[in-house]
Structures are given as structure tokens and as C-alpha cells.
């Protein structure tokens, strides 16, 4: 069960400390963060969703390749091509050439990942 009392007590404390309705709003926001464990030191980072495949992964790299495009294995070739073109138009390094270097590096990584997934699917489909 999710906690609720952080929001309630945060609202009351914020209102009383700042003596203004804005204080209540700030307290409500802090209480919301408390209820959702934002201040907890035991909070683990979210697992990486699109990890590149390992060579000994077996069937996991097939699942990874389809997950990159957010498609199922029963998707048609046209759907895969459409998803590939859409993602490449979004993450192509030439598209972000004038952006910050960090964004350029991220776009290069993502486009490499998209190309690897597309190549893997094409190899599987030709068998």
C-alpha cells in the first residue's frame, strides 16, 4: 500500500511554517516526494531497458532487437521498416549536428543500437 500521510502532513507543516497558501503547496510537493520514497537512500537506479546484446545471449538478443523498435516478433516487414525509418529520422547524428556534444554522442550511440537491432532482425528474417 502506498503512503498518503506525507502529503497531508507536508501540506499542514508548509502552511504553518510559511503562513501562506504557497507554503501549503510546497509542503504538499515535499510530502509527495516523501510518499514516493524520493528521499530514501536505498533507492536503486532503474535497470537499463535497451542494453546491447551479449554474444552468448542466445534468444535474448532477438528479444532485445524487437524491443528497440517496440514491436513484437510477429510484426510484418513493413512495420519493422517503418519503425526503423522513424527512429533513424529521430536519432540520426546529422539531425543533431548543431546540438550539444553530449546529445551528439547520445544520438550516435542510439543510432548504432538501432542499426544493430535492424541488422539482427534482417538476419533472422532471411533464415
Key attributes of the depicted protein:
single chain, 127 residues, mainly alpha, Helix Hairpins, 2 domains, 5 helices, transmembrane helix, J_dom_sf
CATH class annotation of the largest domain? Mainly Alpha
Estimate what percentage of residues fall within beta strands. Answer: under 5%
Question: Biggest sheet, open or closed, and with what strands and sense?
Answer: none
**Mean pLDDT across every amino acid position:** 78
According to CATH, what is the topology of the largest domain?
A: Helix Hairpins
What's the helix count?
5
Order of helices and strands: HHHHH
Distance between the termini: 49 Å
CATH architecture of the largest domain: Orthogonal Bundle
Instruction: Work out the radius of gyration.
Output: 23 Å
Binned, the helix content reads 55-70%
Count of discrete domains = 2
Choose one word for the global shape.
elongated
Low-confidence stretches: none
Kindly name the structural category: mainly alpha
Amino acid at each position: 500500500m502506498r503512503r498518503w500521510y506525507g502529503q497531508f502532513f507536508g501540506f499542514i507543516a508548509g502552511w504553518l511554517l510559511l503562513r501562506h497558501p504557497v507554503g501549503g503547496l510546497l509542503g504538499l510537493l515535499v510530502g509527495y516526494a516523501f510518499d514516493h520514497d524520493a528521499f530514501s537512500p536505498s533507492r536503486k537506479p532503474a535497470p537499463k531497458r535497451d542494453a546491447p546484446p551479449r554474444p552468448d545471449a542466445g534468444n535474448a538478443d532477438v528479444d532485445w532487437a524487437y524491443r528497440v523498435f517496440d514491436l513484437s516478433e510477429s510484426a510484418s516487414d513493413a512495420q519493422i521498416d517503418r519503425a526503423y525509418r522513424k527512429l533513424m529520422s529521430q536519432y540520426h547524428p546529422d539531425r543533431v549536428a548543431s546540438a550539444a556534444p553530449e546529445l551528439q554522442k547520445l544520438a550516435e550511440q542510439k543510432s548504432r543500437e538501432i542499426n544493430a537491432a535492424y541488422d539482427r532482425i534482417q538476419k533472422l528474417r532471411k533464415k
